[in-house]
Amino acid sequence: MTSKDRLKSEIMQKVAEYYLIEHSDQEFFPGKSRVKYAGRVFDERDMNMMVASVLDFWLTAGPYAKQFELELGKFLGVSEIIPVNSGSSANLVAVTALCSRKRGEQRLVPGDEVIVPATSFPTTVAPLVQNRLTPVFVDCGIADYNLDINQVQAAISSRTRAIMFAHTLGNPADMDAIMQIVNEHNLILIEDVCDALGSTYDGRMLGTFGDIATLSFYPAHHITLGEGGAVFTRSHSLARIARSVRDWGRDCWCEYENPTDGKCGRRFEREIPGIAGYYDHRYYFTEIGYNLKLTDPQAALGLAQLEKLPDFIDVRKRNFMRLYSGLEQWQDYLTLPRWHKKSDPSWFAFPITVRQDAPFGRKEIIRYLEDNNIETRMLFAGNVLRQPGFSEIDCRIIGELPVSDHVMQSTFFVGVYPGLNNKQIDYMLDIFTSFMQASLR
Ligand SMILES: Cc1ncc(COP(=O)(O)O)c(C=O)c1O
């Protein structure tokens, strides 16, 4: 062993010790410990991977990022993975790539209509606005919170080119019905899988139905890189455009290796019309792009998280079912989530809607849960059109969106993430029971 290797091994050992002292064994004290809706779940391996990458000090996307692409691709069964710095960036890259000139007739152009549910995360809709596409808003279902298929049918016009939606809180949308519409009208499908990594429909991984899909690795999600996200697609040409959009818009595809003459072998031989001589391919821009790359320490963490992903998914499903069994008795007052018989959701969270005729409102139940140290969240933006930032966008709206308004008024969610175990789930159920008993007296 060289002195460098010995030092590294000592550092790793110390980091593992530090993890054990500082982060492991968080004992749960009912009523005192916070029952979070989500959070990072990690161990000494995650810390060691990140530290190893910091010791390498590559910093920008490098060897760990390349490995992360490969491993995530294996999990999803998709060859083209484009890591980015957030789920919002992933959505921006995906939509912008679909608007590229390089796609010729297939490209989305300003004014093209994209059907999207009004009950959305804001940055599922924002890239449509940013690319001057016209969102056409449809309502959602009350217990599955996914886009309403009948309204999608009603939304189709001669300008409709695409459908974009998130599988809400990990719950797969009805992919048979959606694919039928997509195929019938020759539409592009963009799946936001940010909340649904590992969910399947009819045995098939979400994100593999459409043309392009997105993931988020923010700490609330199924795996975390701190911040982070990814675009994935089966299309090599679309992936190449997406990488360019992510990497400043440049044409050069030398990502992790940089041979002197570039991977194209003609790095210094690019002709630019109107300019005498040749230009460097690294500075040859064929897209309006950004810099949305992730860093190598993030990717190193992602690799350790991916090792745990199958277990994380199992715990999410188990926690969900335990909550469901305990809450079933209150269904006269609370609408519990519903999922398609062909789907196997890798749940992000447990959504609940307070029924209109319940003798209490969302405000009362949330206050009670929060006072008892149980974290709650709203279903993201609710009806995104009620949000001030979206009040002046050019769009088309199908109907009055009553369900999206109801969601905004009456829906919330609690956690099922792998940081929770039976003790916390049972504590949550006890608190729900004491609230119901007091409210129904
Ligand atoms: C459905 C959905 N899409 C997109 C995003 C954006 O992801 P990020 O927070 O990584 O930007 C989120 C974030 O939670 C989300 O839930």
What does this structure look like?
- With 441 residues, this protein is α/β, with parallel strands linked by helices.
- It has twelve helices and 17 strands.
- It has helices at residues 3-22, 44-56, 63-76, 87-98, 122-130, 149-155, 175-184, 236-246, 296-327, 362-371, 402-410, 422-439; strands at 80-84, 113-117, 134-138, 160-166, 188-192, 200-201, 204-205, 212-216, 229-233, 270-271, 278-279, 334-335, 343-344, 349-354, 377-378, 396-397, 411-415.
- The chain has an eight-stranded mixed β-sheet, with helices on both faces.
- A hairpin with a 2-residue loop joins strand 6 and strand 7.
- The longest helix is centred in the last third of the chain and has 32 residues, at 296-327.
- It binds pyridoxal-5'-phosphate.
- Pyridoxal-5'-phosphate binds next to helix 4 and helix 5.
**Spatial sequence of strands, sheet with the most strands:** 1-9-8-5-4-2-3-16
- The CATH topology of the largest domain corresponds to Aspartate Aminotransferase, domain 2
What is the ordering of alpha helices and beta strands? HHHEHEHEHEHEEEEEHEEHEEEHEEHEH
Q: Report the sheet with the most strands, covering strand number, pairing sense and barrel closure.
A: 8 strands, mixed
Give the helix/strand class: alpha/beta
Mean pLDDT: 97
Separate helix tally: 12
Helix content: 25-40%
Computed over alpha carbons, the radius of gyration is 23 Å
Counted beta strands = 17
General form? flat
The bound ligands are: pyridoxal-5'-phosphate
Unreliable runs, pLDDT <50, ≥5 residues?
none
User: CATH first level of the largest domain: which class?
Assistant: Alpha Beta
What's the number of structural domains?
2
Strand content: 5-15%
> CATH superfamily membership of the largest domain, which one?
Type I PLP-dependent aspartate aminotransferase-like (Major domain)
